[in-house]
Sequence to fold (120 residues):
Amino acid sequence: MNVDVLLERGHHTLVIAVELVGAAVIVVGAAWAALRFVVDGIRYRDAAVFTRIRLTLGRFLVLGLEFQLAADILRTALSPTFAQIGQLAAIAAIRTVLNHVLGREIEREQGQVDRPGRAS
Fold:
């Protein structure tokens, strides 16, 4: 086995590992949010409780998206074609916009949670 084959296999394994971490973060966040929604939804009927759940889920989603973007960057790092670079640019732009929107939403919601009595 030559070095090029080993590097390619290692690169592919690394990309898959980073993608799996991103997916796992999103799945864990969704499961946590669903569990909290059921448990706290039965126990409390307060909008602030649901806002905290949404904030935490949003943080999980942002982190998971960052891992997915990292995997996309790693995928095109080894001798990319122009098509792959264009695809990466489109994916990066979409995920960056999603992260920005989620980040702003998290900040806005966090401000409402920090000021009790003003949550809508």
